[in-house]
Amino acid sequence: MYTQKLHAGSKFPDITATTLTGEQLKLSDTGPDADWKLVVVYRGKHCPLCTKYLNQLEGYQDKLISLGVETIAVSGDSREQLEQHLAKLNISFPITHGLSIEQMKTLGLYISNPRSPEETDHQFAEPGLFVVNEKGNIQVVDISNNPFVRPELEALVSGIAWIRNPENNYPIRGTYAD
């Protein structure tokens, strides 16, 4: 299967996902305390590495907010699966469910079939991470085809701090095209 990847510097797609309360959140929207968004796509409740990553990400929320970056997590899980997953999560940032196959494709994510019914009952996105800047453009993108490769959070947050520092005048990287 081939996937079409989103390019650094391009507009982040207009994608919404659903909270447990049924609220539809646009993944790239920010609130009054931030003008950038960190969008974390995780595999689902069946993935212990995703649970660990999301819980570790919670430890960086104060620093991210101080940098003007809000976080949201999303998966293709059902409402019920997200409810069950919350028992293993200790997070304060919004987490959503119901990412469709079409939305996964739009984001350029790798999509996997479950290995067995015990793993999960639906196809799911492999990890993806997008940092969306104040213009709605993709500043940082990381897409993996398995749960073992993800940005190390300390390096990610330090990198965002570097990028956001106006003294560094750091452009969006990876935009060369013939």
Automatic annotation (TrEMBL):
Pfam family, one: AhpC-TSA
A GO molecular-function descriptor: antioxidant activity
Coiled-coil ranges (or none): none
SUPFAM superfamilies recorded: Thioredoxin-like
Residue ranges occupied by any Thioredoxin domain in the UniProt entry: 6-165
Domain of life: Bacteria
Name recorded for this polypeptide: Redoxin domain-containing protein
